[in-house]
Amino acid sequence: MELFKDWGIDENPFKTSPLEPNEDGTKLLIGRTDEIEMFNANLFNTPSLVTVEGPNGVGKTSLINVALYKCYENYYKWYKEEDEKNEKERKRKRLFIPCYRNFQIDPSKKIEDFIDEVLTEIAQTLLKRAKDLEDLGFEIPDDSTSIDKWLNSPMISSFQATLGPVGMGFTEAINSSKGFEKSGFRHKIKNWLQEIFPAKPGGGVVCTIDNLEIIGTSDSAKKNIEELRDSLFNISGIRWVLCGASGIVGNIASSARLKGFLHDPIEIKEVNTHCARSIYHSRIKYCSHNDSFYIPLSEKAFIVLFNRLSHNIRDTFKYASDFCMYTYYKMSDRKWKRESEKDICFEEWFDMRAIQQHKK
């Protein structure tokens, strides 16, 4: 049984996964106008890396995804809405393309494997955006077709599907595939980036390393980032965003080799209470396409959750989803029409939940 579809809603409006870098994401990101402006200012202020910090669950990844998508779309719309572009005007503009995947550094894996993972995803991103790039007046390298066939061959795809993030299996596939040894593949992708995004005006594929707290703040963690400084962060045509919990970037940046290499962190704080109502209704509207739906969590109850959970949006969505599941499975024979009835049930559930958490 699918509880939300039974209520006339297409999907769970309280999903905790980050917003996608697409038009839907822009509609669902609420209360982050100032942060997006700061992000864009740092993004265009090259070459220092953009850094983002904040408590877990406040929506850092969602903000980055949406900001990068809007940046790309703004360039695309600018180009399409204008009449014939002269070459000088186009060269003054910078196109930033969000990579189709965000990355995490696994301390247990070799940095060399991470480099291959990043360059592979950059290649896939450029291949998927090839038509857009051509429409915008960019030239696609002549060897893109051969690399496309190689990257998306059944052998390579099976390794990626089986292992997820690129690991030893993918490295072995690269080494054993004729005509595309690891060093040759890296060289081709770097050449692509230089051809598509010349040094002036710049631009490039934007890659995000998320959840930096995973690697910690030890000397070995700093060493990993230092290695990337020379092997990835300095590659022309790639723009980098580092994202982690509060204080993590500052700790990593304390390395002598990284000082002056990173922008000061953009602090992402919890959104204000007045945004809670808009967040609630935007989610409901996005997931329902008519007025006949039912939802047991009222706007008032959502705002109460939001405030009690210190404005942490991920925790709020988690509790909201849990309450919906509770009412569906425990009280499936009842649907409250009055908001006050919903709120009474919510308060009883929340008190019960608090007691259960206290006993643990």
Summarize the structure.
This protein has about 350 residues and is α/β, with parallel strands linked by helices.
Write the layout of secondary structure elements.
Elements: H1 3-6, H2 23-28, H3 33-44, E1 50-53, H4 60-81, H5 87-92, E2 96-98, H6 111-128, H7 130-135, H8 144-151, H9 154-163, H10 168-176, H11 182-196, E3 204-209, H12 219-231, E4 238-244, H13 248-252, E5 266-267, H14 276-287, H15 299-308, H16 313-330, H17 339-359
Parallel strand pairs: 1-4, 1-5, 2-3, 3-4
Helix pairs in contact: 3-4, 6-8, 6-11, 9-10, 14-15
What does this protein look like?
The longest helix has 22 residues, at 60-81. The chain has 360 residues and is an alpha/beta fold. α3 (33-44) packs across α4 and α6 (111-128) packs across α11. β3, α12 (219-231) and β4 (238-244) form a beta-alpha-beta unit. It is globular. The protein has helices spanning 3-6, 23-28, 33-44, 60-81, 87-92, 111-128, 130-135, 144-151, 154-163, 168-176, 182-196, 219-231, 248-252, 276-287, 299-308, 313-330, 339-359; strands spanning 50-53, 96-98, 204-209, 238-244, 266-267. It folds into 2 domains: 3-13 and 271-359; 32-267, P-loop containing nucleotide triphosphate hydrolases (Rossmann fold). It contains 17 helices and 5 strands. 54% of the residues lie in helices and 6% in strands. A 5-stranded parallel beta sheet has the order 2-3-4-1-5, with helices on both faces. The chain starts with a helix and ends with a helix.
